[in-house]
Amino acid sequence: MINKFRSIIYINYSPYENSGKILDFLLENFEYVFLFSLGFYNITKKKKLNRLFIYHRGKLKKEYLMFQLPVSQRLVFFLLPLRSFITFIQVLLYSFKLKKDYGKIGIFFTVNGFTAWIGNISKIIGLVDKTVFWVWDYYPPTHENKIIMLMRRIYLYFDSVSLRSDKVAFINNRILNLREKSGILPKDRNFLIVPIGTDDFTNLKKRVADSVIIGFIGVLKKSQGLDEVFNNAESIIEKFPKAQFEVVGSGPDEEYFKQRALHSPLKTTFHGYLEGETFNNVLKKCTIGVATYQPDPSNVSHFGDPGKVKRYLSLGLPVVITNIFEFSKEIEDCEAGVIIKYGKSEEFADAIEKIMSNYKQYQRNALNLAKKFYYKKIYPEMFNFS
């Protein structure tokens, strides 16, 4: 356990609950973990969204299915205020029940501005002792879609007031600096930089790079940059005739990408949404990970820390990545992968060829970079209240 706190409420959106092994860290360090798993994109038909999981000493003891308003994909942003209000009410009601059953809760922890606001309300009314806001995102207040732009501006309000949480950590300097420039950071506070962590790499077997197997894990939406793989499929096959593409995940543009794969010379397998070791087993067969996000200024990934890349590095996968992340520079400096420009067709296949020509060195560099961000080393400071 960390300090005096036995219990923690943790809220995140599916499928990111254990990004960077954060849920595993909480289960290892708190006697009770109350996980609110919320749905945004309907990423899988097999999984009920909006659930409360109660863990005791790392073991799942109870599960509650919470109400979720059925929403078609095109109405997601229109009905976001109503869905958020329902989330607010449900989190408070279940938190009252948790306090009644388990006593006052030590920490309320989340990665989202709106749910961090709920955490501060929970503290005011005596449900929790401390609040921790791990700031993952920045949503630019401009967008071509007026509804999305309005929702982002409302979210920025919740984000700004939530910066008064007891402890605030940012995943990189870029999103911290953006808030400094906007003048919304409290002047009397110090803030942590805690990036997304990497997995346990101690039992990893060395990969023999005798073929090109490209791996992707994440939500299937166009901003994630899968088009870049299909756009360059012919040049990839020209250099590596037996190359394959393994895709783990689901999302709003899944059918679009499946149609692209049907007309692509690159053999592509869609595994759908997988959990735990299942998706690790797919990635372990791969030789290169891709994170070719689109460089659109409204793409929120530009401001984040790529959890999928940390997963690739943990598995010893060198990365082909676009230069939209602050973390991309780390990849380049450590020679754990290759940066390409989005839309430069000749660069993608060349990047794969460069990695494969010196694969052992790139794999070794990927693992060394992963060790720098090992989750057990970088997370404790967020929850340490002296």
Name a few traits of the molecule.
eight-stranded mixed beta sheet, 386 residues, 38% helix, single chain
Q: Which H/E pattern describes the elements?
A: EHEEEHEHEHEHEEHHEHEHEHEHEHHH
What is the CATH topology assignment of the largest domain? Rossmann fold
The tally of strands reads 14
CATH class of the largest domain: Alpha Beta
Report on the biggest sheet.
Answer: 8 strands, mixed
Discrete helix count: 14
Tell me the distance between the termini.
13 Å
Structural class: alpha/beta
Structure commentary:
It is a single chain. This protein is of the alpha/beta class and 386 residues long. It folds into two domains: 7-194, Rossmann fold (3-Layer(aba) Sandwich); 213-372, Glycogen Phosphorylase B (Rossmann fold). It is built from 14 helices and 14 strands. The chain has helices spanning 22-29, 80-102, 113-124, 146-162, 173-182, 226-231, 233-239, 254-262, 276-284, 307-314, 328-333, 345-357, 359-372, 375-378; strands spanning 7-13, 32-38, 51-56, 59-65, 105-110, 128-135, 167-170, 192-193, 213-217, 244-248, 267-272, 288-291, 319-322, 337-340. The protein has an eight-stranded mixed β-sheet, with helices on both faces. Strand 5, helix 3 (113-124) and strand 6 (128-135) form a beta-alpha-beta unit. Helix 3 packs parallel to helix 4 (146-162). The chain is globular. The two termini are 13 Å apart.
Secondary-structure blueprint of this entry?
Blueprint: E1 7-13, H1 22-29, E2 32-38, E3 51-56, E4 59-65, H2 80-102, E5 105-110, H3 113-124, E6 128-135, H4 146-162, E7 167-170, H5 173-182, E8 192-193, E9 213-217, H6 226-231, H7 233-239, E10 244-248, H8 254-262, E11 267-272, H9 276-284, E12 288-291, H10 307-314, E13 319-322, H11 328-333, E14 337-340, H12 345-357, H13 359-372, H14 375-378
Parallel strand pairs: 1-2, 1-5, 5-6, 6-7, 7-8, 9-10, 9-12, 10-11, 12-13, 13-14
Antiparallel strand pairs: 2-3, 3-4
